[in-house]
Write a structure and sequence with these properties.
Largest sheet: 3 strands, antiparallel
Structural class: alpha+beta
Number of helices: 3
CATH architecture of the domain at 20-70: Alpha-Beta Complex
CATH class of the domain at 20-70: Alpha Beta
Number of strands: 3
Order of helices and strands: EHHEEH
Helix content: 25-40%
Radius of gyration: 17 Å
Length: 74
Amino acid sequence: MSKWKDSDYSNIIIGGVEDADLVMTSVEAAEYLKMHVKTVCRLAKERKIPAKKVGSEWRFLKSVLDKWLTQEVA
């Protein structure tokens, strides 16, 4: 009989760090960045914030936003 319980597997993350490649909508990204959604969309359109347009909607990777936030301004 196994010594493991169901709860022993609750913190295992398959594929890497939890939320590392989380894809966010513009609303979710704005909440994460604590910015207005229109500002986030404008910055994405101006290519000042990393994003991809999928159809008519912007998508943001949490890990890429984290890297963007930590970049030093020259």
